[in-house]
Specification:
With about 100 residues, the protein is mainly α. The chain is about 60% helix and about 0% strand. The chain has a domain at about 30-100. The protein has helices at about 15-25, 40-55, 60-70, 75-90, 95-100. Helix 3 packs antiparallel against helix 4 (about 75-90).
Length: about 100
C-alpha cells in the first residue's frame, strides 16, 4: 500500500492559482501616488497591500520597487529615494523586512 501521498498533489502554479491571480490583477485598483501626508498613509498602505495580493508571483525586490514608484512627494519621496538606492545596491531585497 505504500505511503499516503497523492499522485495528483495540487501544483502551486496550477491553472486555478493563475486564474485567481489574473482576476485579482483585473479587479484590484493600483494604489494612488503617495504624497507623503501622514493622514493619508494608512489608507494608501492598505491599498498597497491589497494590490500586492494580485502580484504575489513577483520577486520581493520587484514588489518593493513597484511600491516605491508610487511615493512621489514630500518627506516620503526622500525616504523612497534612499530605499531605491538600497534596492539597487542589493541591500534591500526582502518584502517582509521592507513592509515592517
Amino acid at each position: 500500500m505504500g505511503n499516503n501521498t497523492s499522485q495528483h498533489a495540487q501544483d502551486p502554479t496550477s491553472n486555478s492559482t493563475y486564474e485567481i491571480t489574473k482576476t485579482l490583477r483585473q479587479i484590484i485598483a493600483e494604489p494612488e501616488k503617495y504624497d507623503g501626508k501622514r493622514a493619508k498613509f494608512e489608507q494608501w498602505w492598505t491599498s498597497v497591500l491589497l494590490w500586492n495580493r494580485g502580484h504575489t508571483n513577483l520577486p520581493d525586490d520587484a514588489m518593493i520597487i513597484a511600491v516605491l514608484s508610487y511615493v512621489t512627494e514630500g518627506e516620503a519621496l526622500h525616504w523612497a529615494r534612499i530605499q531605491q538606492k538600497e534596492v539597487l545596491e542589493g541591500k534591500l531585497t526582502d518584502w517582509d523586512e521592507f513592509s515592517k
